[in-house]
């Protein structure tokens, strides 16, 4: 069965600092991987996706993620965090009609 | 841009009531999904549909049913609402699997059952 682990429930960073959110997955085949962001009271917005090819994927809002098959990881990064990045972030794995989501990482940003 | 619209942002109902949550998408997507989101549990799939009048159970279908009479509309039904169904409900849609397109989400309905 597929699964996703986001080890960090809550992360706090200072504005301007770099960010890395961790995601580890378990999946029986080549995974389709996604990162979504959810602002308070809103739905989920797609940040980026990986299906195949280049293992470093660029997304919206200056985010990127790197797929590492050997580590079963798909970590999300941003070189310089903005206050507006404060939100909850979800990693997801699987085929499109059977996505499994992680439990999320809440990001707080200190001005 | 894909637009997924959920009919209510906030809804308050009473125990035992029959509750309808409506979702409409404007991109002619084949797949539609209903999730519930609870703190510490992430998103859990309730039902999904890959075509009109078709439905498949997700991970937590108990206490829920769905209806998809038209391609653009997917309804979630709580047959007899209970307090443990108080939650945030998210609808999503996507194109067919072979195009590997991501799911697009609505803004959610926060449902409270009293």
Provide a descriptive summary of the structure in words.
- The complex is a heterodimer of chains A (111) and B (114).
- By secondary structure, chain A is mainly β.
- Chain A has no helices and twelve strands.
- Chain A has strands at 3-5, 10-14, 19-21, 24-26, 33-38, 44-50, 56-58, 64-68, 73-78, 87-93, 100-101, 105-110.
- Chain A is globular, with a radius of gyration of 13 Å.
- With 114 residues, chain B is mostly beta strands.
- Chain B has strands at residues 4-6, 10-13, 19-25, 31-38, 42-49, 56-57, 64-70, 73-78, 87-94, 104-105, 109-113.
- The model of chain B has no long low-confidence stretch (mean pLDDT 92).
- In chain B, strands 2, 4, 5, 6, 9, 10 and 11 form a seven-stranded mixed β-sheet that branches. Chain B has a four-stranded antiparallel β-sheet with strand order 1-3-8-7, with no helix packed on it.
- The A-B interface holds A 9, 32, 34, 36, 41-46, 49, 51, 90, 95-99, 101-104 and B 4, 9, 31, 33, 40-43, 45, 48, 50, 90, 92, 94, 97, 100-108, 110.
Fill in the keyword field for this structure:
heterodimer, A: 111 residues, mainly beta, six-stranded mixed sheet, four-stranded antiparallel sheet, 0% helix, globular, B: 114 residues, seven-stranded mixed sheet, 11 strands
DSSP strand content of chain B = over 45%
Largest sheet of chain A: 6 strands, mixed
Uncertain residue segments of chain B = none
Structural class of chain B: mainly beta
Quaternary structure annotation: heterodimer
**Largest sheet properties of chain B:** 7 strands, mixed
- Which percent range describes the beta-strand content of chain A? over 45%
DSSP strand count of chain B: 11
Mean pLDDT of chain B: 92
Number of helices of chain A: 0
Helix content of chain B: under 10%
Overall strand count of chain A = 12
- Which two chains touch over the largest interface? A-B, 22 and 25 residues
């Amino acid at each position: 069965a597929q699964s996703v682990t986001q080890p960090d429930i809550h992360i706090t960073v200072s504005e301007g600092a770099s960010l890395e959110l961790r995601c580890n997955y378990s999946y029986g085949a080549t995974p389709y991987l996604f990162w979504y962001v959810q602002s308070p009271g809103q739905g989920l917005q797609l940040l980026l996706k990986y299906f195949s090819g280049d293992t470093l994927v660029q997304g919206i809002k200056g985010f990127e993620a790197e797929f590492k098959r050997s580590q079963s990881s798909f970590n999300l990064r941003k070189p310089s965090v903005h206050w507006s990045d404060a939100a909850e972030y979800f990693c997801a794995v699987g085929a499109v009609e059977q996505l499994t989501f992680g439990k999320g990482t809440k990001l707080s940003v200190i001005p | 841009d894909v637009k997924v619209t959920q009919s209510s942002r906030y809804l308050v109902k009473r125990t035992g009531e029959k509750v309808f949550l409506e979702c409409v998408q404007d991109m002619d997507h084949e797949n539609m999904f209903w999730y519930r989101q609870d703190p510490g549990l992430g998103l859990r799939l309730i039902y999904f549909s890959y075509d009109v009048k078709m439905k498949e159970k997700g991970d937590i279908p108990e206490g829920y049913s769905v209806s998809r009479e038209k391609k653009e509309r997917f309804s979630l039904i709580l047959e007899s609402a209970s307090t443990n169904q108080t939650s945030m409900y998210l609808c999503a849609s996507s194109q067919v699997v072979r195009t590997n397109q991501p799911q697009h989400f609505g803004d959610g309905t926060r449902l409270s059952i009293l």
